[in-house]
């Protein structure tokens, strides 16, 4: 049963944001929808602490509650912070039982989200995920999150494109960062993102990134920014050692998710594994080559106008395993030369280069 449209609008709304960085970016159209439909409400974003920089400076939330929720103590602390804001309604975007439990323990009067994973008992309602032969049907996450808004009878946006925002202070920090590495306004900047917090199965080999850096430098005389996240420092060091190209390794700078915004926005092209920075590029309308192996492309099959997805179809893909148990051929057989060719097509250096969806071979 959907909520009665004649109810008194909620005064305080809690939005439990997704956990993964890319999913947070893909949820921004849903954030925008909630804000537009409840302009007078106080809207509070509940987000994991490490991902707060993704949504900071955006227009969607009046306040942010940054939490950890992996232990029982974390859950009790998070629910206590929710009780202090006393939400009339909570929209829970992640699928986990835990995310709904925190909202219930936090005293949210109404809780909406997908009814799955045994959590319907905790919720006031929400859509059911699409199934076929008892299996969930993958769908683009942008639409997946907006479906919660549709179930609530909210007016959804015609254009469902992710968006990101940054303050003047963050932009200035980005400018100073680039200046420190002697990157001028006239330089061609290409970003490479070789890590993935999900697991090693998503990672293209460092030797391939090293060779790609050489090919990119030869083709465009560009400045190469190597984006390295927490725990990925060894990957960055290995790529720099293996490559003869001059690479700016951002690993020692510990670039956070807020500073990452102006740096990716400055790129003319981004080459990345299927991970969070990919969606930054989409939000900033930056051409992006995505090297995809173990994940199902249907989850991100939206807003691909400036995206080329290179994917090697194998008998075991998509597996969604964090670590490959075989030979990782879905990633290793995608060559640096193929990635360079995709970059050329995105930068319109060849005719007939209108790749809209997938380069599967």
Radius of gyration: 21 Å
Work out the number of β strands: 14
**Helical stretch count?**
13
Q: What is the residue-mean pLDDT, rounded to a whole number?
A: 90
Class by alpha and beta content: alpha/beta
Q: Tell me roughly what share of residues is in helical segments.
A: 25-40%
Order of helices and strands: EHHEHEHEHEEEHHEHEHEHEHEEHHE
Q: Please outline the major beta sheet.
A: 7 strands, parallel
Which term fits the overall shape?
A: globular
Keywords:
7-stranded parallel β-sheet; 16% strand; 14 strands; 13 helices; 361 residues; disordered C terminus; 5-stranded parallel β-sheet; single chain; alpha/beta
What does it look like?
With 361 residues, the protein is an alpha/beta fold. 34% of the residues lie in helices and 16% in strands. It is built from 13 helices and 14 strands. The chain has helices at 21-26, 28-37, 52-55, 72-85, 97-105, 141-151, 168-180, 206-220, 233-242, 260-266, 276-283, 329-332, 336-346; strands spanning 12-16, 42-48, 63-67, 89-92, 110-113, 131-132, 135-136, 189-193, 223-226, 247-249, 269-273, 288-292, 307-311, 358-360. The strands form 3 sheets. Strands 10-9-8-11-12-13-14 form a 7-stranded parallel sheet, sandwiched between helices. The protein has a 5-stranded parallel sheet with strand order 3-2-1-4-5, covered by helices on one side. Strands 6-7 form a two-stranded antiparallel ribbon. Helix 8 packs across helix 9 (233-242) and helix 8 crosses helix 13. The longest helix has 15 residues, at 206-220. It is globular and about 60 Å long. Mean pLDDT is 90; it is low at 350-361.
């Amino acid at each position: 049963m959907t909520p009665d449209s004649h109810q008194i609008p909620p005064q305080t709304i809690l939005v439990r944001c997704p956990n993964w960085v890319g999913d947070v970016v893909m949820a921004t159209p849903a954030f925008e929808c909630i804000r537009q439909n409840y302009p007078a409400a106080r809207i509070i974003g509940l987000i994991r602490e490490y991902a707060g920089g993704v949504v900071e400076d955006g227009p969607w939330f009046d306040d942010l509650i940054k939490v950890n929720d992996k232990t029982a103590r974390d859950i009790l602390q998070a629910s206590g912070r929710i009780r202090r804001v006393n939400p009339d309604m909570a929209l829970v975007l992640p699928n986990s039982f835990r995310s709904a439990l925190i909202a219930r323990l936090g005293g949210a009067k109404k809780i909406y989200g997908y009814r799955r994973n045994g959590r319907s008992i905790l919720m006031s309602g929400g859509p059911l995920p699409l199934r076929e032969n008892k299996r969930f049907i993958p769908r683009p996450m942008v639409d997946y999150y907006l479906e919660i808004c549709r179930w609530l009878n909210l007016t959804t946006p015609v254009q469902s494109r992710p968006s990101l925002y940054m303050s003047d202070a963050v932009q200035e920090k980005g400018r100073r960062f680039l200046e420190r590495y002697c990157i001028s306004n006239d330089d061609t900047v290409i970003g490479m993102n070789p890590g993935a917090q999900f697991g090693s199965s998503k990672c293209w080999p460092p030797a391939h990134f090293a060779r790609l850096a050489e090919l990119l430098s030869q083709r465009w005389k560009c400045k190469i920014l190597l984006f390295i996240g927490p725990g990925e420092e060894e990957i960055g060091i290995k790529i720099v050692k293996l490559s003869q190209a001059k690479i700016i390794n951002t690993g020692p700078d510990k670039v956070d998710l807020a500073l990452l915004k102006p740096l990716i926005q400055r790129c003319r092209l981004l080459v990345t594994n299927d991970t969070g920075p990919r969606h930054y590029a989409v939000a900033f309308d930056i051409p992006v080559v995505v090297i995809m192996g173990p994940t199902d492309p249907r989850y991100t099959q939206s807003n691909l106008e400036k995206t080329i997805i290179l994917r090697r179809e194998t008998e075991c893909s998509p597996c969604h395993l964090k670590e490959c148990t075989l030979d990782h051929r879905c990633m290793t057989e995608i060559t640096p030369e193929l990635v360079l060719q995709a970059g050329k097509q995105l930068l319109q250096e060849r005719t007939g280069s209108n790749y809209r969806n997938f380069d599967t071979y």
